[in-house]
Design goal:
It contains ten helices and ten strands. The protein is an alpha/beta fold and 304 residues long. The chain folds into two domains: 8-114 and 291-301, 2-Layer Sandwich (Nucleotidyltransferase, domain 5); 120-287, ATPase, nucleotide binding domain (Nucleotidyltransferase, domain 5, 2-Layer Sandwich), CATH 3.30.420.40. The strands form two sheets. Strands 3-2-1-4-5 form a five-stranded mixed β-sheet. The longest helix is centred in the C-terminal third of the chain and has 24 residues, at 224-247. The chain is globular and about 70 Å long. 44% of the residues are buried.
């Protein structure tokens, strides 16, 4: 890449890692770099600023460019405008005269939505540890539902599946219906008594989303309790998507599914079925691109 050619950078800063993609007008010739988590809720604002600044500098040096024209960073845990401004100002200060002409800081859900439909209208469902639903209308309006966190929201999420799975196990210890989740937890965590379960949840404080794969495995094996948990949660999430769609003035009839749980075939099938019940005839699809591509597209659009 010639140093005089404008360079655009997209960044996807998630909870576990940060990915940077740098390219010129077309993303066919590009540079990808990776760093540690850039989520300010996990590494703090200073940590987030350090990770993003270092990746931008690495990209600039690798491309032999004096400065990058435009950067867009979608950051998990940075949904508030005040947080985005704080991160932006911190990066500009850190980079000094190496700062790009334009620096856009937004939420990681925004870049995921841009990537999923390549700028077109549609609804995206993101479900991993938590859950959120995002929409872009035909008029270009952005709407969202969910994202309330595990205390009052996150329907259909890994946390919700794990919490209801552990609740079902507690009921079984109390004399309620037995569930295959018991055997799976005994095998993986050596939990065989109610005291073991209490210790695991309240003393060891294992994040409840860690148990979601056990619930899905039990459901896949035909366990009725686990199957009901997955069915109820995916239906709840699909209902949330319906509420969002009803708020849209007009939206293209396509749904993209993203997030760690969608890599589980059983869960993906249950959620797809629940969505098609709510939206018969709609297209349920995988995103067209990874979120970092959406960030790159937004960086380039900022200069047009």
């Amino acid at each position: 890449m010639a140093s005089e050619t404008p360079v655009y950078i997209g960044i996807d800063a998630g909870g576990s890692k940060t990915e940077l993609m740098a390219a010129h007008v077309q993303p066919d010739e590009r540079l990808n770099l990776f760093g540690s988590s850039g989520n300010p809720a996990r590494v703090g604002f200073d940590g987030c600023i350090d990770v993003l600044s270092e990746l931008i500098l690495q990209a600039t040096e690798r491309l032999a460019a004096e400065h990058v024209v435009s950067v867009c960073a979608g950051i998990a845990g940075a949904g508030r405008a005040s947080d985005q401004m704080r991160i932006r100002e911190g990066i500009v200060t850190e980079l000094g005269d190496r700062a790009p002409d334009r620096l856009l800081i937004t939420h990681d859900g925004d870049i995921a939505l841009e990537a999923a439909f390549e700028g077109e209208s549609g609804i995206m469902v993101i479900t991993g540890t938590g859950s959120v639903t995002l929409a872009r209308t035909r008029a270009g309006e952005f709407l969202r539902a969910g994202g309330w966190g595990y205390l009052i929201g996150d329907e259909g999420s890994g946390y919700a599946l794990g919490a209801f799975g552990m609740r079902a196990l507690a009921h079984a210890f109390d004399g309620g219906p037995r569930t295959a989740i018991s055997n799976l937890l005994a095998e993986s965590r050596d939990v065989t008594t109610s005291e073991d379960l209490f210790e695991l949840v309240y003393h060891d404080r294992v994040p409840l989303q860690k148990f979601a794969p056990l619930v899905i495995r039990a459901a896949r094996k035909g366990d009725e309790i686990a199957r009901r948990i997955v069915l109820d949660q995916t239906r709840s999430l699909a209902r949330q998507v319906r509420w969002l769609a009803d708020r849209c003035s007009s939206v293209r009839p396509q749904l993209a599914l993203l997030g760690g749980l969608t890599n589980e075939p059983y869960y993906y099938g249950s959620l797809s079925e629940a969505l098609l019940e709510e939206f018969p005839g709609w297209l349920v699809m995988e995103p067209l691109n990874r979120p970092v591509v959406g960030a790159w597209r937004m960086a380039r659009a900022a200069t047009l």
